[in-house]
Amino acid sequence: MSLIPDVGGRIRVIEGHECGQAMDFTHVVVQETGGGKASIFVTRAGEGGERVVRPQRRGDFEVSQVRTTRHRAFVVIDHQHARQLREWRELTMRRMHRFLRQLEGS
Q1: Which helix (H) or strand (E) holds 64?
Q2: Which end of the chain is more exposed for a tag (fewer CB within 10 A), N or C?
Q3: What pTM was estimated for this model as a whole?
């Protein structure tokens, strides 16, 4: 099973990188064929992940969060395309939670 679902071939990863300088996090950007974009951030708990995903203006983005003891995952979707990415977001959040639990060995 892929960590990032494609929901019927409509989702593709367009960028991904890890940052270890300012904080320890992984960032993945995905795009839906209808134009929607989403980002996934995985951080260690307590590493300031909230700063990474804070939108510039209220209501620009919808942010969902999954937590485990030592990690957090944020899925950020631009508000304009939130409805068409809702199914993808819910499935991604479940997979991210399972992934983080495995990462921690629980």
Answers
A1: strand 61-67
A2: N
A3: 0.76
Measured distance CA(99)–CA(106) in Å, rounded: 10
Write out 20-52 in H/E/C secondary structure. Answer: CCCCCEEEEEEEECCCCEEEEEEEECCCCHHHH
pLDDT, one tens digit per residue, over 69-97 is 888 888 888 888 788 888 888 988 998 89
Backbone phi and psi for residue 82, each to the nearest 5 degrees, phi listed first? -60, -40
Q: Which residue has the tokens 């134009």?
A: 35
Q: For the stretch 40-54, what's the b/e string if a residue is b when 16 or more beta carbons lie within 10 angstroms of its beta carbon?
A: bbbbeeeeebeebbe
Q: Which residue from 94, 104, 26, 27 is spatially nearest to 66, judged by alpha carbons?
A: 94
Structural domains for the chain: 11-103 (3.30.200)
